[in-house]
Design brief:
single chain; 235 residues; 4-stranded antiparallel beta sheet; alpha/beta; binds adenosine-5'-diphosphate; binds magnesium ion; 6-stranded mixed beta sheet
Amino acid sequence: MTHHTPAVIEFREVSMTYGGPPPVQALQPCDLTITKGEYVVIVGPSGSGKSTLLNIAGLLDTPTRGTYLLDGIDTQKISEAQRAALRSKRIGFVFQSFHLLPHRSAQDNVELAMLYQRVDRRTRRNRAATVLNRVGLGHRSHALPTHLSGGERQRVAIARALAAEPSLLLCDEPTGNLDSATATAILDLLDGLHREGMTIAVITHDANVAARGERTITIRDGQLTETPRAIRMSP
Ligand code: ADP
Ligand code: MG
């Protein structure tokens, strides 16, 4: 018997056309498999289809055509409510602009991510404390986002993304709002999570971010191409 690493993301001939007018084919039919534990970077210029790809992978949007399996579940054969449940349980999102609730503490922001999980209040509190410790912010759990630095805010957002113990972290320009030293620290944190087994997909146009992934996929005019490692590493 062959050993088989389970696919977290599997796109089969997935494509996306926005209605318009005029209609825009933002994603050409593509196959993409991301297996458990991989760290994949998706790069491409503005307007190339990165957000479209992220929105489909993150169950925020449904493709026009094709099949998308998340953890082996056909995401088009389930109800909208089941998709929402799948999204909140299996996917952690990290965005450039953090998206924290400004009047809630770091702890509350992380706990709120678990509100729709079937976990009791005490479990939510404990898990939030655990993930805030993991990102190095245990001592700032009662702080409001406005009292935190940009790097600390992104750590809270990463803690929030981890709280439901997702299968996949989807990051869209996670260091886009950070200075380079802070960005490096956030990328180090993602590296650490990857070493612990987390599956990570990062969308970026920043070469320093792209250099961290094990696989690089380029998107151009809605077309995906994988950059073979041998080519990427040659001088
Ligand atoms: P990126 O994130 O790489 O900048 P997008 O995925 O946002 O690219 O966009 C890809 C293409 O699809 C662009 O041509 C964009 O104008 C178009 N597009 C994105 N969202 C919509 C939408 N809701 N309706 C129509 N066209 C859209
Ligand atoms: Mg975009």
